[in-house]
Amino acid sequence: MLKKALIAVASVIALLLGFVIITPLVVDVNQYRPEIEQLIQKNINGSAKIGRLSLSLWGRLAIEIDELEVKDAKGKRVLAVQGSSINFPFISLISGAPELTLRLDGPEIYAIKESDGSFNLLSLAKEDSKASAASTSSTSEPEAAPTPAAEEAAAPQGLAPIIVASKVDLLIENAKVIFSDKGSGLEQKITDFNILLKDVSLGRPMDLDIWADLNTKLDTISLEGPFKMTGEINPVLKDQEVQGFEVKLESIMDKISISVPETFRKSDKVTTQLQIEAFGSPEKLTLKSLIIKFHDLVLEGRGEAILAPELSYSFNFSQNQINLKTWKEILPPLKDFVNEDMKLSWTADLVTDHLKTFKLNFKAPENDLTLVAGVENFSAPNINLNMKSTGLNIDRLLPPSKEEAEAAKAKPGSSSSAAGTGGNAVSGADGNAAQQSAAEQAASDVDAQLAELKNNEMLKQMKAQVGIRFDKVTAMNVDVQDFILKFTFNDLKAVIEPIKLKVFGGQINTFASLNLQGPRPIYKAKLTVDSIQFKDAVESQLPKFANTIMGNLSLSGNAKGESLNNDLMMKNLVMNGDFKILDASFATVDIVKMVNEGGAKAIQTIKEKFPKAPLGSIASLGSGEGKFKEVSSNFSLAQGVMKAPNFKALSFPGKGVDINGYTEIDLLGDKIQADWNVIDTYNKTGLKSVSLKEKGVEVKEILAEPGKPIRFPIKVGCKLSEPCYKYDAIPGHFWNIASKKIEKAAGDRLKAELKKRTAKEREKIKKKQKKVEEDLKKKAKDFLKGKKLPF
């Protein structure tokens, strides 16, 4: 019985061996090529061509294809394979561990995106097949709900051992991928592209090797060089079920060169490496380790993402401290300002829809900065940001370019001064240049940019709380100390309370708000300025005030306005308050010239009336007597016009003159209009000492009002940068005073003369009366002489 069974088995084996040996000899598989080509063409928009086929069943199933070519409907090549093979050893099937080897030799893929956006690879799929699939899906009847028994039968029972034990090897050699974007001009070539995927299985670790030569160009941007990646993929099984895959990948890209002209340049000597260790499943992704190395940068990351039933994640990333000074060859823009060590590091913690913590540290000579930030809810962000620094020297950190340095040297107003004032003036031509520069800067429409941003739904819902404290900041040659800022943003409205800083030798405090809801930003501010050097502020940040008054400024006021554009900000600014400037001098108004010319006009007025009368000489203000101890007024500012109705300028004791009156300055139109009274408190002009002697009449202090110092009116007009002075009111003013004094002096002399004459007449009468009395007494005595009276 056993013998018969062995004979039967031997007969079967012999038949199989005969089939394996004879079939490839008598069956020509190439006769099926046309049918295979037609089957392919039936399902694509294009054509397919298959080269010679060969079949072998000797110990294995071996199929080889000498050539395969696929073209699109336009006849352009899409895919070409020089040779391919399938190898399936029978012994692996008998052993319960099937092995399949797939090999592609020299495949070429041509991916082309046309100017109209069409993609040749996508155009291969036929529309009718897509529609048929969609129709079948939409018209299919809904399946009946499964019964409990069916659900139990359908429950996973684990993979069959033969599936777990099976493996596939995939080898792609000398592949070439060419991608072309006709619209953007991007050309990308990957040559010598090789993939070795070994032991692809659900029951054992899989090895992965990928290497290729890259060559990508877009205009002047290029990327080229060898790329290599190795890795291991390990399936994780539990009860014969795949729980997920552990992945380890490592890529070395040191020899790749990348060039973006004037922006980025990586040579083949710059370290570029990637390492990933992770676990993935349909429910979870765990990043055990991520390490990216580039030059001296090392970026590390780890974390986990839960994919089902709802997405949640938690990741941590950190970057070591790098020195930007060593990046100048990689980032050419750094060459213009990074000449010293600049060290930067950061860490970040990401949780579901949150940036839990972001911390950045920056250090450089005379510079340090710590930034800590957090964001809640990325779709409607709530941002918390805090920045601290013991010192920031922006000028040292970002020195001006050669062009900026030359422009600063040529800056107008650096040497010219108004005579007698010691102040700097911007001439009319220079003012035009400044206005032209401002116009160029205004080309960037900030209002329009903000108008676009406010339509962003995320920005509408965004909230922010910002705190900044810098012990010292140096920028544009300006030193700022104790800079404190608290800022909140909500519902497209920003509130700043407060900004505090010490600058220009004084302190500034500001409470402000900004509303972005309207067509243009609306802002309000309450400003307090305490003892800043206004000249320094003007030269640094306030060029429109260059032709006003320099000195130690204190100011308080309330402001509001609309627009953040350079050309509209000053025009729309409305402000009311008061100011005081100590140790003040006018930048363009020549006080010395104005007073001396006014005094000369006063003397001329008297001489015209009394040409022969000696008036004596008068003094003139010296070049250093055009400064003031204090200049003050309340003020208003609107449409770029500043009005100071109670303008007062008090001179230093014993020096100069005082001024009061109305002052109006058009900061946009470069105009000034002032009605001033010049008050010579200390008689520096000598006008109070002027006296008049005419026909025996002397009038002392003929130009001064009784008990008051010399005072005379002057109007200032024309351009603020080139003021002119009007003395029209001086003659009438002084003649009015002089005529009253002359009239009074003449009247006093007449009264004195009358009084004198009356006294002489009385004396004559008395003398006459006395003589009459004496004569009467004598006659009476003579009459009675020698006569005897009865008594």
Description:
Keywords: Coiled coil. Residues 3-645 form the AsmA domain. This is AsmA family protein. Residues 132-153, 403-440 are annotated as: Disordered. Residues 410-419, 426-440 have a biased composition (Low complexity). The chain is of the alpha+beta class and 791 residues long. The protein folds into 3 domains: 16-123 and 161-219, no CATH class; 239-352; 411-434 and 448-454 and 492-745, no CATH class. The chain is 25% helix and 45% strand. It is built from 16 helices and 38 strands. The strands form 2 sheets. It has a 36-stranded mixed sheet that branches. A two-stranded antiparallel sheet has the order 35-36. Helix 15 (591-609) crosses helix 16 (729-784). It is rod-shaped and about 200 Å long. The N and C termini lie far apart (225 Å). The relative contact order is 0.04. Residues 1-23, 129-140, 150-156 and 412-439 have low confidence and may be disordered.
